[in-house]
Amino acid sequence: MSELIVIGYDDPTVAENAYQAVQNLQQAYVVDLNGLAVVSVDADGRTHVDTPSKIVGVSAASGALWGAVFGILFLVPGLGLVAGAAMGGLLGRLGKSGVDERFRGQVQDMLKPGSAAVVIMASKITEDKFAAAMRPYGGIVLKTSLNDEDEKELAEHLAGAPQ
Predict the structure, then answer these.
(1) Can you name the residues that pair with 143 across neighbouring β-strands?
(2) Closest CA to 152 of 104, 103, 97
């Protein structure tokens, strides 16, 4: 099962610091990341994405799933790995897996001009240590889960989707 966590901040600098903290938690084995990014929205409403160059231990399937989920959450052109009719099928699968329209709406409502969010997809997380380490950064936390069956079906859907 993967956890999808989006932590929203009014201050992009705080989001950057929280992003670094999550990377440190990966190195300390508190969280096992499948994906990590900080998304900021500038004063003109344009979305900017920063991701680490490589997350250790992430398989191609997990990376593809992360890219698709991230692309659908933020509707950032070029990040989703599917297009056209395949996108409709993937949206349908994601809607049944916890990344539904309501969750996407909450994420998008949280990101206003001048704000930022840290987006985390983790296969394992030590909840108490993670929460304690992230508490100093505050923020609004949104969380959902993808169970193993949903992940498998999504990965299969991605594998069969036109690139």
Answers:
(1) 5
(2) 97
What is the reported pLDDT for 92? 57
CA distances from 136 to 15, 132, 144 (A): 11, 8, 22
Task: Please calculate the CA angle 82-87-93 and round it to the nearest 5 degrees.
Answer: 115
Name residue 142's amino acid.
L
Model-level pTM?
0.78
pLDDT in tens, 136-162: 999 999 998 877 776 666 666 555 554
Q: In what order do the strands lie in the sheet with 31-41?
A: 47-50, 31-41, 116-125, 2-9, 140-146
Q: Which residues of 41-58 are buried (b: 16+ CB within 10 A; e: fewer)?
A: beeeeeeeeebbeebeeb
Residues 31, 125: contact at Cβ < 8 Å? Answer: yes
User: If you ran DSSP here, which 8-state letter would residue 136 be given?
Assistant: G
Q: Cβ distance 39 to 111 under 8 Å? A: yes
- Alpha helices by DSSP H, listed for 4-163, are 12-27, 60-74, 85-97, 101-110, 127-134, 148-160
For residue 6 the two structure tokens come to 């989006």
